[in-house]
Specification:
64% of the residues lie in helices and 7% in strands. It is mostly helical. The chain has a domain of 103 residues: Arc Repressor Mutant, subunit A. Strand 2 and strand 3 form a beta hairpin. It is globular. The mean pLDDT is 91.
């Protein structure tokens, strides 16, 4: 008899453990991401834009280069330049050539960008608290630890050595 995950994806057979892990992570990530997207969309922002604004807030007056932003994105994407154009059009960021190397453009958060982060902090914070309350503190900590392990696994995984002992 199919479980919750199998029913959700319409599988007629039970999934192998590894397959269920990957699909389950994808479904959970997609569902949680959809809720975050909904909250941010109410303020005219995407999750990727939000993450860039958060990065720039953390970088302070020094700002970040295009390459630094691309490396730090939660979900890698090829169209970082287009996203930065959109953020600049909203006046949430500013861009200026680096003083030390004019080939490098430094991005900084503007006062308007800080205000937008403050605006979305309430609704996003409520969602984050509801999620943690739903899971409970122990399960939240365990899930975060498992996410750290999964990130480490994904970053060190070598498909050429898969299954080799």
């Amino acid at each position: 008899m199919p479980g919750t995950l199998e029913k959700r994806i319409g599988s007629v057979r039970a999934l192998d453990a590894g397959e269920a892990l990957v699909i389950g992570l994808g479904v959970a990530s997609g569902d949680i991401g959809a809720q975050v997207s909904r909250v941010l969309a109410e303020h005219g922002m995407s999750p990727r834009q939000y993450h860039v604004l958060r990065m720039l807030r953390g970088a302070g007056a020094e700002g970040l280069s295009h390459a630094d932003i691309g490396r730090r994105l939660v979900a890698r994407a090829p169209d970082v330049t287009r996203m930065m154009d959109q953020l600049e059009a909203q006046r949430w960021i500013s861009r200026k050539p680096s003083a030390s190397d004019r080939r490098i453009v430094i991005h900084r958060l503007t006062a308007r960008g800080r205000a937008m982060l403050a605006t979305v902090a309430g609704p996003l914070g409520a969602f984050y608290r509801d999620l943690e309350d739903f899971l409970g503190p122990k399960a939240s900590a365990q899930l975060l630890a498992l996410c750290e392990r999964l990130i480490a696994f994904a970053n060190q995984y070598d498909p050429g050595s898969a299954g080799a002992e």
